[in-house]
Amino acid sequence: MTPDGDLTKVADPADTPFGIVVDKPQEFPRSRRKLKEAGLAYFLLLPALLIFAVFIFYPFLKNFQLATQQVPPFPGLPTKNVGLDQFGDVLGSKDFLNSLWTTVLFALITVPIGLILGLALAMVAHQKLKGIAIFRTIFSSTVATSIAVAAVIFGTLMNPQVGLLPWLGINPQPPFLENPGLALPAVAVATIWQSLGLSFILMSSGLQSVPDDLLEAAEVDGAGAWSKFRNVTLPLLSPTVFFAIVVGTIFAFQTFGQIDLLTQGGPIKKTNVLTYYIYSTLRESRDPGKAAVLAIALFVITMLLTLFQLRFLERRVHYAR
After folding, report:
1. Chain CA centroid to CA 227, Å
2. Which of 7, 166, 190, 284 gives 171 a disulfide partner, CB atoms 3.0 to 4.6 angstroms apart?
3. What domains are defined for the chain?
4. pLDDT, tens digit, for every residue of 211-231?
């Protein structure tokens, strides 16, 4: 070994080819090398971990502390530690159950319809036709539209005084956004339109992975358009569809902006989804303890629903090899 300890020299020329003396690097112990690599990895991750700790982990843990405290209705009075009793009071209330059902119904409307429309547009844009690139741009353009812009557009379209739909003779009474039976579907239409660009892009990327030779082989065997789609395209597209369902469901349960801009949870709380219920609890009731319980409930429900989808829907996913 050399004095600096980095290289080991073969001293006997007879032990080497043609009697040449060679130097070879010393191999560090594997455990020491892994320790160095782990230390470097944690050092590089430290800035991101600090950001997560300050803005995500700490607020998340603080939320559990707030959920056990009952804030009095009048300012200046001390808070009362009620433990887990507040969870039962809040989660068993009629307002929470109504808000949960509204959120589930909103997801059942927006996720399947948005997925089907995105897949249909992707199938059209996947055709090898002249000028199809123009339609691909049009179909994906809504991905650049924010929720606020989409809400303003559809709020104007449905306005009974200046809207396009009343001008065309489509003007139910009460108007769309004031009608208890039509308010939630009206907000769902705005949401589907705003998210259609993302759904189209996801489905288009999935269609690119479907081999053309499989479709040609199915066509040679006499398969029609529907048979090729059901037996070839859809199974190979199932990972993309599965991803779109999971992500779309999470987005639906986190809906807030369009509700706030279009209906403010009304009429008669028919669009009072969980996220807006949390917001209104803080704004109107000024009860952070109750809002913390609702936030935890939303997190747990979304997590359990996602785990359910990963556990049962993934069985139908076909991963081609």
Report:
1. 31
2. 166
3. 7-67 (no CATH), 95-316 (1.10.3720.10)
4. 888 888 888 888 888 888 888
